[in-house]
Amino acid sequence: MVVLGVGEVVLRVVDAREKDYGSFKARFDIDVMKKLGIGPGDVVEIVGRRRTVAIAWPSYPEDEGKGIVRLDSVVRRNAGVEIGDKVVVRKASFSEAKTVVLTPLSEITVTDAVVSYVKRRLIDIPLVSGDKIPAPFVNKQVFFKVEFTFPQGAVVITPNTEVLITRRSREAPLNFKLAVAKLLEEEGYRIIHVGKKESEIDIIAEKDGRKTFVKIVEEQFKSKEENLYITLGKLLTQMKNPKAEYMIVLTEEYENLTNKIPEYVKNKLNLKTLIIERKYTIKKKT
Question: Which CATH architecture has domain 174-285?
């Protein structure tokens, strides 16, 4: 074990025992918990090549003093690590999830009963946007990607959480993205990237020395209002540069919904909107 400073340590990853698989537990020394100011059942951050969260749980007696943390394959994948890697473990700040949006990573029929079932499986589970979490179904296990959460950051699902499951990812087709990129070029933007890179951003552009991150509204729900809010949520979770501007691209049937975008969201994102017609011409920009 390496103590990095007040409130965080480095531990070596070993596999969880079978009985802990699917529990989202991180088992490590009780003495380490005391150093971190936490107890069994508290939420901890596990930081490898990416950041995730898990439930702190006491190590087995035979593991005491070895400087290890037992993680199952789900938590390891969410942390971007393998057995034998080292991770930073620290106490997590978390909130009760108000809304969590999930996308199935394999084909399932999404019904109200399925949503209720998945929610029940996830009660008291901590997670962050980008995590991939499993739920067992008849004859198979289905993984769901956490698209975004409200509030942002680490959250725990409770009985009061609104869980939404989108249809399997239906991102804007590449030809649509290229058409939008061409329109932006005509408006004086220099296109840096088209297509998803390491995030949910569809297009990265630049104008007058300022980067613009563009997200096209995806048709994931029947409700256009939900689709709009999902897109805004994804932009908020990807916001890393407060000096940049962020843009949403909508087709003309969404035009009447733009006045429902909260002012604090517009201000936080330096938000611009681009409304286009299906024939790929600009109808309105703000």
Answer: 3-Layer(aba) Sandwich (3.40)
Query: Measured on CA atoms in the order 265, 266, 271, 273, is the torsion positive or negative?
Result: positive
pTM over 0.90: no
Cα 82 from chain centre = 21
Burial label for 234, CB within 10 Å (0-12, 13-18, 19+), is buried
Tally of CB atoms within 10 A around 159: 8
List the Cα angle 71/73/79 in 5-degree steps.
70
User: Cα–Cα distance between 54 and 84 in angstroms, integer?
Assistant: 18
Q: Tell me: the pLDDT tens digits for 47-70?
A: 999 999 999 999 999 999 999 999
- For the chain, where do the domains classified as CATH 2.40.40.20 start and end? 2-92
The answer to whether 205 and 189 are in contact (CB under 8 A) is yes
